[in-house]
Amino acid sequence: MALVTGAGAETGRAIAMRLAAGGALVAVADIDLGAAEATVRAIEAEGGHAAAIGADVTRDEDVRRMIAFAGRDGGGPHVLVNNAGGWGQANYLEATPEQWSATLDLNLRAAMLATQLALEPMRAAGGGVVVNIASTAGLASEPYASPEYGAAKAGLIRFTTSLGDLRERMNVRVNCIVPDWIATDRAHGELERMTAAERREAGPLVPMADVAAAVAAFVHDDGLAGRVVVLRGGRPRRFLP
């Protein structure tokens, strides 16, 4: 089974549908159970198979329940895509410690915990794949409006590369996708509020289908472990050294 977090809409839904189209039984996890169920219906309409679970990945008990749900056939998730993420309205300068801590929990700690809980079931089932969805916010060196989000995504990238030896130890590959601005509704809305010059500087958005395709490539390429791929709109995929 492939478990995708934050799969109730947009990028997560695109990933879940791509994996289902490839023959995977997909566990669709989202904080909004209704949205997760809508993704399941979309998958089933295309002839795929999926099951929905409501889970807040910032709650440890929900993450444990989610991993158990994906392994209820006795195996465990064979694929884990840590896609859930985002940031709040207040950034670090104005945010309370609780607000910026919540961003760190959502974008980094949740993925670390889900991965840790999935590793042994994956090993026992003969191996597996973890794909973390980061952001170019974690690669940049210029000032950034949401430092807590950038720090979390930078941590997610380094977390991934730190686990590159799990291929030999547990037959589990951990990989990371680092997309630039994805073509979500929020991104389109922010682009509309920009000046023409700002839009040119921002560059083209990354289609959600490109992120989903990169996930599928990691899932099916047994030769990749601990690798990080960068996606920028209108450019080919680029692996970090």
Key structural traits:
alpha/beta; Rossmann fold; eight-stranded mixed beta sheet; 47% helix; 8 strands
Topology:
Blueprint lengths: L1 E4 L4 H12 L3 E6 L2 H13 L3 E6 L5 H11 L8 E4 L14 H28 L3 E6 L13 H16 L3 H5 L1 E8 L5 H8 L3 H7 L5 H13 L7 E4 L6 E2 L2
Parallel strand pairs: 1-2, 1-4, 2-3, 4-5, 5-6, 6-7
Antiparallel strand pairs: 7-8
Helix pairs in contact: 1-2, 1-9, 3-4, 4-5
| Number of E-state strands | 8
* Rg (C-alpha, Å): 17 Å
Strand percentage? 15-25%
How many domains is the backbone divided into? 1
Task: Write a structural description.
This protein has 241 residues and is α/β, with parallel strands linked by helices. The protein has one domain (2-180, 207-239): Rossmann fold (3-Layer(aba) Sandwich), CATH 3.40.50. The chain is built from nine helices and eight strands. It has helices at 10-21, 33-45, 60-70, 97-124, 147-162, 166-170, 185-192, 196-202, 208-220, and strands at 2-5, 25-30, 49-54, 79-82, 128-133, 172-179, 228-231, 238-239. The chain has an eight-stranded mixed β-sheet with strand order 3-2-1-4-5-6-7-8, sandwiched between helices. A hairpin with a 6-residue loop joins β7 (228-231) and β8. α1 runs parallel beside α2, α3 packs parallel to α4 and α4 runs parallel beside α5 (147-162). The chain is globular, with a radius of gyration of 17 Å. The model has no long low-confidence stretch (mean pLDDT 93).
